[in-house]
Amino acid sequence: MDQITRSDGYTQPPPYVALRIKAIQSLLVEKGLVAQDALDEVVDIYENRIGPKDGAAVIARAWVEPEFKARLLEDGIGTLAELGMTGFEGAHVLFVENTDQVHNVVVCTLCSCYPWAVLGLPPAWYKAPQYRSRVVLEPRKVLAEFGTTVPSEKEIRVWDSTAEIRYIVIPQRPSGTEGLSVDQLAELVNRDSMIGTRFATPYEGAAA
């Protein structure tokens, strides 16, 4: 799984798509069609001002407010809009919930469709051909390579994102967190748990 989970780029050149994007970006800037400052602003927005912490806050609230979670499951994009989270470029956002019977994982087999407005930039492995192809064919094995062991009796559902529909996983709430605040719970919601490749972070203060 190193080829999926690692993206340091020390031994491999950037993917062809990344090189192509960089070349187009350079040409646009060189010809004066796009300002470098504008590009930097867009990158800064998605790297620093929008990110997994926004999604984590939504998930944590869903853990403590059943009515809010029901609204997310019924009308994800409408509920997010109430929170000021917009900019999905016309796509719908569908929340899927992990339970004792079902584990959900998200992929985009065609490219890298992703709920940027909630989770920020996608991880490099999410765009990797290895992940996009293998998680559909052998999801249990791929998840195990991420360190996520899903019991054999639990169903795994793979959701294929498109330009029209983006998915966000509501991970199961860690045990022993009944007394935590929403802010404390949000700290346990890691990015990958909202994609489904990992579980939410266990609470260290939980009783053994």
From TrEMBL:
What's a Pfam family in this record? NHase_alpha
UniProt-annotated binding residues for Fe(3+)? C108, C111, S112, C113
What are the Nitrile hydratase alpha/Thiocyanate hydrolase gamma domain coordinates in residue numbering? 17-197
Q: What class of enzyme is it?
A: lyase
Under catalytic activity, the entry for this protein gives: an aliphatic primary amide = an aliphatic nitrile + H2O
InterPro entries (alphabetical):
CN_Hdrase_a/SCN_Hdrase_g_sf, CN_Hdrtase_a/SCN_Hdrlase_g, CN_Hdrtase_asu/SCN_Hdrlase_gsu, Nitrile_hydratase_asu
Keyword Kinase, does the record have it?
no
User: What protein family is recorded?
Assistant: Belongs to the nitrile hydratase subunit alpha family.
Q: Know the name of this protein?
A: nitrile hydratase
Species the sequence originates in: Saccharopolyspora phatthalungensis
Q: What is the lineage of its organism?
A: Bacteria, Bacillati, Actinomycetota, Actinomycetes, Pseudonocardiales
